[in-house]
Amino acid sequence: MAAKPDKPSDKTEAPPKRGKILWISAIVLVVLACGVAAGWYFTRPAATEESAEEQPSRKRSETVFVKLEPFTVNLADEGGERLAQVAIVLELADKQSEAVLARNLPIVRNNLLLLLSSQHTGSLLSMDGKLALAREIAARAGVALGWKEEAAAKEATATTAVKTAAKAAPAARHAVQANPVVAVHFSQLLVQ
Question: Is the dihedral of CA 110, 115, 117, 118 positive or negative?
Fold first, then answer.
C-alpha cells in the first residue's frame, strides 16, 4: 500500500507571538524617544550668537518707561488734510537715561514732531511702516540723549571683524555706547 500524503490542515498557523512583541516594543521605544527629543527641544534655553560677556548688561528690571504727551500732527500727504494723533511710551535703559531725557525733553519732542509730520498716511497704516517709524523714533530720541548713531552703525558693520579680533587680542575690543532708548511703544496711533 502506498502511503497517503498528509492532508493540508485547514487551520493556518499563527505567527509566533515573539515577533509581535518585538515590533510593539520597537514602536513604543521610538515614540518615547521622539517624546524625549521634543521635550528637550522645547525646553532648552535659546541659543544666542553672543556670549554672556558680549551681551548688553541691561536687565529688563532696570528699564524705565516714560510716557510722552500725545502728538497731533498734519501728515505730509498731498492737500495736507490728514492728521495723526500719536501717543508714545519710551522704554529707557535706566534711571540715568530718564534724567537725561527730562533735561532734553524739548529737543526730543521737537525731533519727534518733525519726524511724525513728515510721515504719509500709507506708511502709518501698514505694519512695516509702523515698525520703521518706531525704529526711527528710537534713533532720533537716542541721538537727542547723547547716543552716537554713527559710531553704533560703524560698530554694527564691523561686528564680525571685532569678534575675530577680540578672540586674537582681547585688548582690541572697544565698547560703543548703546542707544539709551531700548524700545518705542505706541499707546495710541490714530490717522484721520
Answer: positive
- Determine the structural domain holding residue 107 and report its residue range: 63-151+178-191
Across 78-109, b (16+ Cβ under 10 Å) vs e yields eeeebebebebebbbbeeebbebbeeeeeebb
Q: Say if 45 falls within a structural domain.
A: no
**Which residues have CB under 8 Å from 1's CB, separation 6+?**
none
User: Model confidence over 148-184: pLDDT tens digits?
Assistant: 877 556 555 554 444 444 444 444 444 567 899 999 9
Strands 71-74 and 181-191: unpaired
Q: Residue 16 domain-assigned? A: no
Give bridge partners of residue 93 from the DSSP assignment: none
One-letter identity of residue 88: I
Q: How many angstroms separate the CA atoms of 145 and 139, rounded?
A: 10
The whole-angstrom separation of Cα 154 and Cα 133 is 22
Say what the pLDDT of residue 164 is.
Answer: 46
Phi/psi-derived region of residue 163, left when phi > 0, alpha when psi is between -120 and 50, beta in every other case: alpha
Identity of the amino acid at 44: R
pTM: 0.59
